[in-house]
Amino acid sequence: MSKRIIIIIPTNSGIGGAENRFFSLWCELSKMGLNIWLACSKNLFCDLIDSHNLISHNLKLKQFYIPFTFSTGRGYSKSCKDFISKYCNLDDILHFVLEHPTFSPAQSTIFSSTCTSLKLFNWNGKFVQLLSPLFADITDVLDPSIFSLYKKLYKYKKSIYLTKCSFTNIDLFRPNFPKKKQIVFLGRFSSEKQILPFCKSIPLIDKLLKSQMHNYSFLIIGNGPLLNVIQSIIASNSFLNINVTLINTYTPHVYLNDSEIFVSLQRFNNYPSKSLIEAIAAGNLIIATDCGQTNTLAKHEFTRYIPEKFKPVDLAKAALSLCGLDDITKTEMAMIGRKFVSTTHSLSRASNYYKNIYNKISN
């Protein structure tokens, strides 16, 4: 395809699951011969390069070094219109990711709805999300429940599609057996990830496991606004003699490939969590909050579910039920999870889905 596909990303977006997931996809699509361009800040582009351990001059992916910012909020639409009028050709395909599309009658437009729950927005944000399909030729929806809502609201539009899958690099995330006796949290340190309730539950989890002769360490991976609070919690006296490590890394596979249990504690919904898919591919058993569409990814064959508003005892009992299994059973469960992810959440499957969308809008 010779047409330019221009991906528009708000400048003040940080690097989260959606950014990492899509960046891997765009790199793959570029290798497949699609003419992909990113419209974002130079800083965000460099951060994405660093987070994937890539060298920019080896990429087929191209980037606009735009002299202004795609701010979110009131200035966003004006920034997009300024960019489109100055840099875009009439036959370009505009793909809006992470923010709502701007009406552009001259170009074909795609809107990727990465929202996993409307509960994450205030009323204004919900209103914008619900109106977004009006301004796009094709709407690509990540969450099944939001997809159903869009289909009800826009019965006349046949160009609303449910994203086939999220994905991960199953060659990079590969289990190393025997596994370390380790429980891992990986994610942004923010309230919707429920990192603070997890940290406060660690002493009880450790106590219950040790009472049954299970000696596990705890690894917390990530960064975010609650970092200082987490550091204070794990430095308290209640964490004496508990093996807890706090790190941030661009290479999570190094740790997930060795760890045994992964906690996925998101509020509202945790489908399709990038870190959860990575953990399953790496052979981790899962403890997950039972909310939203999470159980479509964290299948019961390798998962223990706890309430969305869990208590420390809920998490401790779930951990004990997994840690107490024999090693053969753990390995069998881990491989069931890996096989599931390898079949349904591969990068090639996702790449073909988006390539078909670009072909549809091009034709």
Main attributes of the structure:
seven-stranded parallel sheet; Rossmann fold; six-stranded parallel sheet; alpha/beta; 363 residues; 12 helices; 2 domains
Gyration radius over CA: 21 Å
Mean pLDDT: 87
H and E order: EHEHEHEEHEHEEHEHEHEHEEHHH
Number of helices: 12
Output the CATH topology of the largest domain.
Rossmann fold
Distance between the termini: 11 Å
Low-confidence regions = none
The geometry reads as: elongated
Q: Main sheet: which strands, in order across?
A: 3-2-1-4-5-6-7
User: Roughly what percent helix?
Assistant: 25-40%
- CATH H-level name of the largest domain... which superfamily? Glycogen Phosphorylase B
Structural class comes to alpha/beta
Please state the second-level CATH architecture of the largest domain: 3-Layer(aba) Sandwich
Q: Biggest β-sheet: count, sense, barrel? A: 7 strands, parallel
Domain tally: 2
List how many beta strands DSSP finds: 13
Q: What amount of the residues lies in strands?
A: 15-25%
**CATH structural class of the largest domain:** Alpha Beta
Folded structure, characterized:
- The protein has twelve helices and 13 strands.
- With 363 residues, it is an alpha/beta fold.
- The protein has two domains: 4-167 and 346-362, Rossmann fold (3-Layer(aba) Sandwich); 182-344, Rossmann fold (3-Layer(aba) Sandwich).
- The strands form two sheets. The chain has a seven-stranded parallel β-sheet with strand order 3-2-1-4-5-6-7, sandwiched between helices. A six-stranded parallel β-sheet has the order 10-9-8-11-12-13, with helices on both faces.
- The longest helix is centred in the last third of the chain and has 18 residues, at 327-344.
